[in-house]
Amino acid sequence: MKLILSTGNIMQDGRPSVVRHPLMQKSNVELISSLRANFIASQHVESNGSEPHANGNGNGNGNGFSNSTSNGSHHKDHRSWTGEQPDGSLYIPAIDFSQPGLSEERPQYDITVKLFYLPGIPASRRCAHTREAIDLVLKELNVDSIDLLIVSFPGLLFDADDDSDEEEAGVTGEPDDFDSMVQTWRVLESLHEQGMIAQLGVAEFGSERLARFLPHTKVKPSVDQINLKDCCVVPKSLILYAKTEQIQLLTHNDCNDILPVGTTRELLGPSDKGAGILASSPEAGDGIQGDVEPQWVVKYTAVVKDRGVVENKGYFALADIGNCVKSRQ
Amino acid sequence: MGLLALGTALEWPEAKKKAHKVREWGIEQLLANWRRAKGKERDALLWGDEVEYLVVALDDEAKKARLSLAQADILKSLARDEALWKSGSGSNDSNGEHDDEDPPHFHPEFGRFMLEATPGSPWGIGFKDLLKVESNMKWRREVAKAHMAPNESPITLTTFPRLGTKDDYIQPYYPPSGPALRSQFVPDEIANPHIRFPTLAANIRSRRGRKVELNVPVFKDKNTPSPFKDPTVNYDLHLWPEDDDVRNGAAKDDHVYMDAMAFGMGSCCLQITFQAKNMTEGRKLYDQLSPLGPILLALTAATPIYKGFLVDTDVRWNQIGGAVDDRTPEELGEAPLKNDRWRIPKSRYASNSTYLSQDPRLRKEYFDPDLVVDQDIKKRLMDGGMDDLLATHFAHLFIRDPLVIFSEDLEELDLNKGDHFENLQSTNWQHMRFKPPPSDKDDIGWRVEFRSMEIQITDFENAAFSIFIVLITRAILSFDLNFYIPIQRTTENMETAHARNAVLDEKFYFRKDPFSQRVPKGSAQQSPDGSTFSSANSSAVNSPPSSPSLNPVDNEYELMTISDIINGCSDGTFPGLIPLVESYLNSVNVDVETRCFLASYLDLIRKRADGTLWTGARWIREFVAKHPSYKHDSVVSEEICYDLVKAVEEVTEKEGRNGALGWELLRGKKN
């Protein structure tokens, strides 16, 4: 069974998580806390008696929702605020895709999507995952193309101090092997050819990896996004190489391991901090049984081009659940 | 500084008779323009900065720094070059760094020793544009310098330390006590000779019934006499009736006394103007930036010296307010109301008193209960279709009299022009200005001007503060931030910002939670212009929601340090303006080079706020205190002034690198 987790638009929702902890080390705080906030808000709306996504009369008392965090194990039945699809997948919370995603016409926007392939998930699934993720974003924003797709391969760490190469960290999973990156790129190139994605980008590539990667591409990455603590220290070799190849170096502050299994369990679990989707014990009937395995996370941003205003930003995450899912522990 | 059309300017007794007509016509022009432009949509973010300079002339032999009154010659020479430039034959840009930028514009200012420079064309939000700002500012300075005499240069001090002293602080020298200013300290020739400026000064004085009166508390050093009686005041002048002012007690003990518009309008500011996508967004930005005015004033503090004395305030603001205060004794509340229409609590140059946005978050408790409004004008505007809030705003601005009226302009009302409207609009110098599109230009939208900041010594700082404000506006719009506090608290904050070292020592009222309350998904009404609430909800302003869920207004804000406001509270309550901006930057695609630049700008502001770096005011104070000839008597002598100006030039050039002068201002460490 597929669980589709979503944050909704995190920009204009008064969601304190956006900036409340800007100095925290882990920059997946935004994802986790905005998912949590969206779950709570959706439960709250439902418990107020109105339909989750009906055009209600905006009672607007945002004060109340935080109280519901203390509901603890008294979670209401999740079926009231999640959306089960005919194919068996479950939207958490339910989404009304008929809502207009953007307020102006499509050409006014720069839409950037970043897709995080997660550690330990076979690269063979990426073709399907990529399509799934892009489809969700297109539906959410009500558009038929995006301007830039950046893909983040698991296990890559950019190290600004090390000019020689980026490190391949094995903390959270096996470093991605080069061939599977190239395989994945084929999928992206085909989406590009179909006109669904205007530009492609990679993340955390050092100059050597770029140099190795480029000959294998038909559509060159136009962006390399790197995570820098001090963005004024970028290896010269990378700057020069990127310039020659006309690859734009962009900055980001995303976390390398954006959605660990444990965090996902906690988010969906029966505890005080969880959404009460998962069963509290293998025997209990108060939720879905089985192991959870997050598959991918996608972040999308729609920026009004000539005004620099971020109008819509959010995340989707997909997790598999069930006994067929192999636990990686 | 407004329009510079030529004509016959009316002296006050005549101008006063025509004031009503100008107001009436101004309102008709406003209405016509508002009808034409209210539906303007989807204008891009364009913005511009204005940098103002003092032109100083150094006399190295005599060790004297003087103000140069060569503005007209410099501007003429600049204009000649600009014409050449446009025809493609001239270039001031030797290394081609600015090939893709339009040549900067230079403008006259009130002071004949001043110059204003703006970029040749407005900036956008493209991050590459943000990178050009600083170098463009430096370029402007070079271009200006190239059109001055070899010993002259443009410096960005807010005020000249010895303006109005007894010595020859101007070049060429003119004696004080002219017919327009009637100042015992400065000559009429200190002002731009364009008829508009002497008329403005004379009519302010005339309307007021005496000279303007500025008393700035002196900074009491260990050898400063107590009580301090301003030794430069002459009590025996009998040239003009206004010379009686000082005999009637205009000069206060323990204060530095000044008596002319030039002491205020001769100050240099850093002003930023933004174009909004439409009127709705402009009104929102006007409201949301308003509470930031006093905070940025304290952060940019750079004015610790007046008329040769260290003073106990750090910023220029109230001195300009006093220098153009045209209120009569009746309006000031010093005499019973007989001839005038109302008491007016603030000078024409003051913090703003209105909120404009049709925003459901705007509660009636935020409004100024003492707001003076011309009800007839408000009625005319509302009868003309304007909504209550906007009509109130303009009916508030229009309580003033027009100060400079050209008789030629009163022959016929031209509704396609905005001259009468601008006459009042541009002489209401509040810290925010809401600007309708010009009547005669279709390609310019609704704009908002942020006016409180003091000019900084280096262009690095000027660029940093300009860009910071731009980024704040983007964060406000992206996160839909809410900085509303009762507007009187902003007025109080403006006063607080004057205190010596207010940036570190004082606390300011600020809203605790800048985030809008969550509206359950799906219930927000998306209006076609993208704002979350349709204007139909604007009635909420007049009959505010009495929802019990709303907190008492006084719980919404508290006193915070500037560091809390800029960097965030350590207890996590207020997130901080810089973290908000960084959060915004993390949501957009920024290239590595730009982010590096922006990081250095944000770092400056962060460290100004937490005290790691000094404000200009503090640096100047320390410079004076450490000067070998300073006698700890608050006197900033000619010699100190000369050395200070030289030092300022060095700071502008070297920016405190490698332990050079000014490192406390810019680097925080010597190496």
From TrEMBL, chain A:
In terms of InterPro entries, this protein maps to: Gclm, NAD(P)_OxRdtase_dom_sf, NADP_OxRdtase_dom
A Pfam family that this protein carries is Aldo_ket_red
All copies of the NADP-dependent oxidoreductase domain together span 104-250
Oxidoreductase as a keyword? yes
What's a single GO CC term here?
glutamate-cysteine ligase complex
Q: Which GO terms describe its biological process?
A: glutathione biosynthetic process
Gene3D superfamilies documented for this protein: NADP-dependent oxidoreductase domain
Region Disordered, annotated ranges = 46-85
Annotated GO MF terms: enzyme regulator activity; glutamate-cysteine ligase catalytic subunit binding; oxidoreductase activity
Which UniProt keywords are present, listed alphabetically? Glutathione biosynthesis, Oxidoreductase
Query: What pathway annotation does it carry?
Result: Sulfur metabolism; glutathione biosynthesis; glutathione from L-cysteine and L-glutamate: step 1/2
Q: Which PANTHER family match?
A: GLUTAMATE CYSTEINE LIGASE REGULATORY SUBUNIT, GLUTAMATE--CYSTEINE LIGASE REGULATORY SUBUNIT
* Family, as annotated: Belongs to the aldo/keto reductase family. Glutamate--cysteine ligase light chain subfamily.
UniProt subunit comment = Heterodimer of a catalytic heavy chain and a regulatory light chain.
Quote the protein name from its UniProt record: GCS light chain
Source organism per UniProt: Penicillium angulare
Source taxonomy = Eukaryota, Fungi, Dikarya, Ascomycota, Pezizomycotina
From TrEMBL, chain B:
Known pathway: Sulfur metabolism; glutathione biosynthesis; glutathione from L-cysteine and L-glutamate: step 1/2
Q: What is this protein called?
A: Glutamate--cysteine ligase
Q: Where is the composition biased (Low complexity)?
A: 534-553
Q: Which organism is it from?
A: Penicillium angulare
- Could you say which EC number(s) this protein's record lists? 6.3.2.2
> What catalytic activity is recorded?
L-cysteine + L-glutamate + ATP = gamma-L-glutamyl-L-cysteine + ADP + phosphate + H(+)
Source taxonomy: Eukaryota, Fungi, Dikarya, Ascomycota, Pezizomycotina
GO molecular function annotation: ATP binding; glutamate-cysteine ligase activity
One of this protein's GO BP terms? glutathione biosynthetic process
Identify the stretch(es) annotated as Disordered.
86-111, 517-553
The reply to whether Glycoprotein figures as a keyword in the UniProt entry is no
The family assignment reads: Belongs to the glutamate--cysteine ligase type 3 family.
Residue ranges with Polar residues bias: 523-533
**Keywords associated with the record:** ATP-binding, Glutathione biosynthesis, Ligase, Nucleotide-binding
Pfam families on file: GCS
Gene Ontology CC: glutamate-cysteine ligase complex
